[in-house]
Please model this.
Amino acid sequence: MNDILLSLRDMACGYHEHTVVQRLNLNLKAGDIGCLLGSSGCGKTTTLRAIAGFEPVQEGEILLAGERLSAPGFTLAPEKRRIGMVFQDYALFPHLSVADNIAFGIRKHPQRERITAEMLELVNLVGLGQRYPHELSGGQQQRVSLARALAPEPKLLLLDEPFSNLDGELRRRLSHEVRDILKGRGTSAILVTHDQEEAFAVSDHVGVFNQGRLEQWDTPYNLYHEPQTPFVASFIGQGYFIRGQLQDQDSVRTELGLIRGNRAYGLPSGSAVDVLLRPDDIEHAPDSSLQARVVGKTFLGAATLYRLQLPSGTQLESIFPSQTDISPGQDVGIRVAAAHLVLYPAQAAAEQTSTSGVRRCQGAA
Model:
């Protein structure tokens, strides 16, 4: 049985003659939540609008449950797609009550009142059905928007930056609530966001966009631990690239010593490579001969993020348990605890550094 609900095949789309998204391929399984992640202008919102039917495709096609929704010269009307939409600004009708907003898409349904009551309970707004949007908090308004989108039982739900108008703690709480609601109903969804924490909290699969191209469509775990391109390695999480030289198929010589991975790398021995080291790859080791100087620290509660500098000037970051308290200017012993190495040819990684959040350090190899 084919459990693929949404397929985008070699899709290109944009505005007028300008192509924004190029040769996009992804599949979403029924019941899964996917996320389109990237910075502003990368093509994620354009892709969402094409799925919704608001933008035509220039090449390729979009399929939902085997039915073609879009192809060059053909765009099925948005209202015929069985796709729900949750907007960034909620888009509620201010003159309608909460209950009437939720029931807007099922006005002619014989079970309208029952479904509306179920939706109010689903989003934890029982007793607020007769209030108006301006009488609700931002989080409550977003719950109304979600309930309205779910009431007609769409095959697919699209969420466009749904939590961006909320403060940090409410964003985190509501994102978990929304995931629980969608999973509880078995509703498939695509979320658009620029927030990695939000993407990872809500989604089963995340697509990382870069200048109109989908770099990788994968689980949050694989994006962090198995990035397929230097851009994904740089964009997801935080860390530093450090220069090294491949000694053999599974080890790299760096200024931190010989680092051995748990796999064979397909580059010739002697190749210059850049190795990605994340904060969780560097451990506090008081008895280690490998020393670094603390140049900055950020207390995170259960742990502390330390910015470290090696004698060569190379900087790294490491997370130590919060019980360890080391002041800037002090030296500290460290060791590399990265059995799985993420590395790329030095030039490939260098090309991504200027546009990424990961720093690249020219350490002695």
Remarks:
- The chain has nine helices and 22 strands.
- Confidence is low (pLDDT under 50) at residues 360-365.
- The CA atoms of residues 58 and 72 lie 5 Å apart.
- The first strand starts at residue 4 and ends at 15.
